[in-house]
Design a protein that fits this description.
This protein has helices spanning 2-18, 130-137; strands spanning 26-27, 38-44, 55-59, 62-68, 72-78, 81-89, 96-105, 110-117, 123-128, 141-142. It has 148 residues and is an alpha+beta fold. The protein has one domain (2-142): Immunoglobulin-like (Sandwich). A 4-stranded mixed beta sheet has the order 5-2-8-9, with helices on one face. The protein is globular, with a radius of gyration of 18 Å. 21% of the residues are buried.
Length: 148
C-alpha cells in the first residue's frame, strides 16, 4: 500500500513538472530574409550528449536566444558586418562553451552554424555549407523561447 502511494505521488510530481514547461515544437520552416539583414540559422541535432542542458545563444554580446534545446534550430536576423556567435549554458551563463566569428556577413545571405555537443560539456560551433545546413535543419524543430 505504501509503495503504491509513493508510485502515485512520484507519477503526479513528474507529470506536474513536465506539463506545460515548453510549447509544442514546430517542424522546420524556412525563414524569409528581412530587407538589409542577414539570416543566421543556429541548430543543434539530436544527440545523447548534453540532452538536458539548455544553452543560451549570444551574438555580438547580446542574448538572442535564452534557452536553446536539443534537436532544435533558431533563425536569427543580424546586421551586416562581423558577427561573434557564443554558446553558454543557460543555468550557469558565465562560461562560454564555444565562440565563432563570422567575418564580413552580407545582407541577404543565409549562414548555417551547427552546434555540436560532446561529453564533459564540450561544445563546438561549426559553419556548414548551405546544402548540408538545409538538409540537417529539416531534422530539427523550432521551439518558442522561454518567458521569464
Amino acid at each position: 500500500m505504501l509503495r503504491r502511494k509513493f508510485i502515485l505521488i512520484g507519477t503526479l510530481l513528474t507529470v506536474m513538472l513536465f506539463s506545460g514547461c515548453l510549447p509544442s515544437p514546430k517542424p522546420y520552416t524556412p525563414a524569409k530574409i528581412e530587407e538589409g539583414k542577414a539570416l543566421i540559422y543556429v541548430y543543434r541535432l539530436e544527440s545523447i550528449w548534453q540532452r538536458g542542458v539548455g544553452w543560451t545563444i549570444k551574438m555580438n554580446g547580446k542574448t538572442k536566444r535564452k534557452y536553446f534545446l536539443n534537436n532544435s534550430y533558431v533563425p536569427i536576423y543580424v546586421e551586416p558586418g562581423d558577427i561573434t556567435v557564443e554558446i553558454t549554458e543557460y543555468v550557469y551563463p558565465y562560461g562560454v562553451y564555444d565562440k565563432i566569428v563570422l567575418h564580413d556577413v552580407k545582407a541577404g545571405n543565409v549562414y548555417y552554424i551547427k552546434a555540436i555537443p560532446g561529453p564533459f560539456s564540450v561544445t563546438n560551433l561549426k559553419v556548414v555549407d548551405a546544402d548540408i545546413g538545409e538538409k540537417e535543419l529539416k531534422e530539427t524543430e523550432y521551439y518558442e523561447d522561454i518567458k521569464e
